[in-house]
Amino acid sequence: MKKFKKYLKSPASAISLFVLAAVLLAFSSIGAARAALTYFSETYASRVQMFDIGVWLLENGDRVSWRDYNSAADGTWNEATDALLANMLGEGEQLKIGKAYDEALSIRNSGKINHYARVTIYKYWEDANGNKMQNLSPGLIDLNLVNLGSDWILDESSSTAERTVLYYNKLLKAGETSVPFTDELTIDSMLATKVTQSEEAITNEKGDNIGTRITTTYDYDGVKFNIEATVDAVQEHNAQDAILSAWGREVTISNNSLALK
Predict the structure, then answer these.
(1) Alpha carbon distance 84, 122 (integer Å)
(2) Using CA atoms, how far apart are residues 176 and 23, in angstroms rounded to an integer?
(3) How far is the C-alpha of 23 from the C-alpha of 238, rounded, in Å?
(4) Which one of 17, 55, 226, 238 is most buried, counting C-beta atoms within 10 A?
(5) Are strands 16-26 and 224-235 parallel, antiparallel or unpaired?
(6) How far apart are alpha carbons 60 and 56 in whole angstroms?
(7) What is residue 64's three-state secondary structure?
(8) Beta-strand (E) ranges in 32-151?
(9) Residue 18: which residues within 8 A CB-CB, separation 6 or more?
(10) CB crowding 21-59: b at 16 or more within 10 Å, else e
(11) Percentage helix, strand, coil, to 5, in the chain?
(12) Taking a C-beta distance cutoff of 8 angstroms, is the pair 195, 174 a contact?
């Protein structure tokens, strides 16, 4: 729990709230990365109380990251983040390349006021030393997006191979949970086809060549894939200006439906 001691003086009519969860997985074992909540937008409308807003990130229906303001209205909030995919594998189970695992991600409005939401997903690879790998495509980390168009909007102009930006196109009312924006995670089986083969002559005791030994090595043995999911929420009041101020994105809102310009 932290004390928010700054006065929020921006004239923009927005509260922006952020939660994050992250994961590191090796091919042979599962690990967890705990990522701290690091950002809170200092834009605030005086007619809206800070302690009215809250947001959760849900994984397969369970809360994995959240920021909720204290009902005591004293400027404090509760926040925490756990690791994504921590329960994806059973005890002793190894990750299988090419297998689809359940990974339904959604968000919940845990506050007292309605809000609009944005999700940003990052996917990338690291080598055994923790260095980001530029020669291995994030596209091999297939986090399948769902409900695009009907409920979620893909912001193609802000998205890259590594970053995916989504907007919930409906006003998320207090206490409501969104439909999922992902449903499955698969590591592309093409990764297993990237191998290096070496040949070594086999000789007998006399030194005669009696055959060839072929050794196959996976090029990316020991690499890790990273997934990070972040959620921002902006209050309903004056939302178009609030979103432009907090997120730098022009949108239109009509009948509580959001569209990108």
Answers:
(1) 13
(2) 26
(3) 35
(4) 17
(5) antiparallel
(6) 13
(7) strand
(8) 54-59, 62-69, 76-81, 101-109, 115-126, 141-145
(9) 37, 38, 39, 40, 41, 67, 230, 231, 232
(10) bbbbbbbeebeebebebeebbebbbeebebbbbbbbbbb
(11) 10, 45, 45
(12) no
Cα separation of 101 and 114, whole Å?
A: 32
144: helix, coil or strand?
strand
Who contacts 11 (Cβ-Cβ below 8 Å, separation ≥6)?
Answer: none
- pLDDT at residue 224, as a whole number: 84
Given a cut of 80, whether residue 20 has pLDDT beyond it is no
Work out the number of other CB atoms within 10 angstroms of the CB of residue 191.
20
Q: What is the dihedral of CA 102, 134, 20, 235, to 10 degrees?
A: -100
**At residue 11, does pLDDT exceed 50?**
no
Amino acid making up residue 74: D
Band (3; pLDDT cuts 50, 70, 90): very low
DSSP conformational letter for 242 = H
- Say whether pTM exceeds 0.70: yes
106 burial via Cβ count (<10 Å: 0-12, 13-18, 19+): buried
CA 82 vs CA 34, 71, 147, 240: distances in Å: 6, 23, 25, 31
Contact between 114 and 236 (Cβ < 8 Å): yes
Query: What is the spatial distance between Cα 11 and Cα 260, in angstroms, rounded to a whole number?
Result: 23
Residue 219 DSSP class? T
Q: Convert the pLDDT of each residue in 187-209 to its tens digit.
A: 888 887 776 666 777 777 877 77
Residue 83 sits at φ, ψ, to 5 deg, of: -85, 135
